[in-house]
């Protein structure tokens, strides 16, 4: 997807909380919610943050998608068996970005997809792919570039995902990958109207549950002086972009996870030198909940063994 991205992104990646990250990579989640428009088009790598998702959150999000897929007649959803953390897990293609109200009124897409439009900005995602073997790595805030060595290894381990209900978001101008942007639908589809859908009690409950799951992150922000972090998604106006904007998402329910969810690591060696056009806040690494095991280089180890003398 080189050459399709505006800005200095070569292998853009986004860190998200679980379970939203895996739901996106498995093709179940089709809209990533944010409080800011997508800066790229094309492939976006997805990294799962270090926070272990609790069972209640997983259950709430799975029920949300179960209900909105049922609106389109899909009743046999297969969710991921595991929700790995601190791992690069796959990628999707970002084909457009619209305001939430635009997606909700767009009659060219299924009703269930329109129900995912719960945030200020909706990143429209297609062609999910997952890594057969997820890569352990540290994540960063907002969109950042993967290190080349990680990209080179990951791109060889991708496997296409069969989405339960594949969606194609039509571009207003097939020659312009950025033609599907805020305000574009009013020009090309002036007849689109806000969706009028009679929600069942179970659907309403599922939406409420998804919002509650997302707000677990935003509540942590209320007493913090700086909220420059992660977003979520699945909500009405902010269901939790945890993905529904997780970590910077789920769709954007809490558009930003507090800085308390991140921590500064001592030493320049912990900072990613390849981050481009990002502020110091954007470069804060996410907290790692498990300390990595020390690794000794094989050559050093061999030389040390040869130098041993009997005592």
From TrEMBL:
Leader sequence segment: none
- Residue ranges of region Disordered? 268-295
Start and end residues of each ASCH domain: 14-117
What is the top-level taxon of the source organism?
Eukaryota
Q: Which InterPro entries match?
A: ASCH_domain (IPR007374), PUA-like_sf (IPR015947), TRIP4-like (IPR039128)
Pfam families named in the record: ASCH
Which Gene3D superfamilies does this chain map to?
Answer: Hypothetical protein (2.30.130.30)
Q: Which CDD domains match?
A: ASCH_ASC-1_like
Q: Where is the composition biased (Basic and acidic residues)?
A: 280-295
Designated name of the protein: Uncharacterized protein LOC116207321
